[in-house]
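Working notes for the structural subgroup meeting. M.R. asked for a predicted model of this chain before we commit to crystallization trials. I am recording the input and output together here so anyone reviewing the notebook later can reproduce the run.

Input as submitted:
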Amino acid sequence: MPIITIHNLDKDRAWGLWNIQEQLQVLEESYTFGREEKDYLAGISHPNKKQEWLASRLTVGMVCEHLQLSYAGTLKMPDRKPYLCEQNGHVSISHSHAYAAAIIDKSKPVGIDIERIDTKILAIRKKFLFEEEFSDDIRHMTQYWCIKEAGYKLAGSTGISLKDDIIVDPIPAGLNHGETQIHLGANTYRILFFEYDTYIVAFNIN
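Returned structure, recorded in token form:
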């Protein structure tokens, strides 16, 4: 299986990245479904989305194994936030085209996002940034988007505005990796971001 990497951030937190190359049938045969997961997958109509769903759950399972946590599947709460069926840790999942990513912490909330670097970001940047934060650097804008999406998942609640409620400390243009902070209400989180292939990955490290 083409898992790219699994890394510990500390003894209780690890993340993994999967390059999706397998056919849908191979992914289905490789995954041990937890309760209700087959019904959820059956409700996804697009084959590529099914592949992303399965690859992300396989990544979760491998990260659990890396942390020596038992794994019995991943479901979603009514607000769409994922949770481990055994509720033995916090999980966040992301997938975009050719990659799936997951992060798990045994006791603290986590958020991860992966986004492909694409010119479409220039058309949607007004949804998550103020005009004075705009640039025409596609990678730069994708970094902000990815960091804010990781923050949204970390918040774990609906009604959060990417533009108004998740504030990112300024990131210099031209970086392909780095660390910044986001401010979410009264809380501040450190976010690591980096470029892999033609994608940006971001997740919290505290």
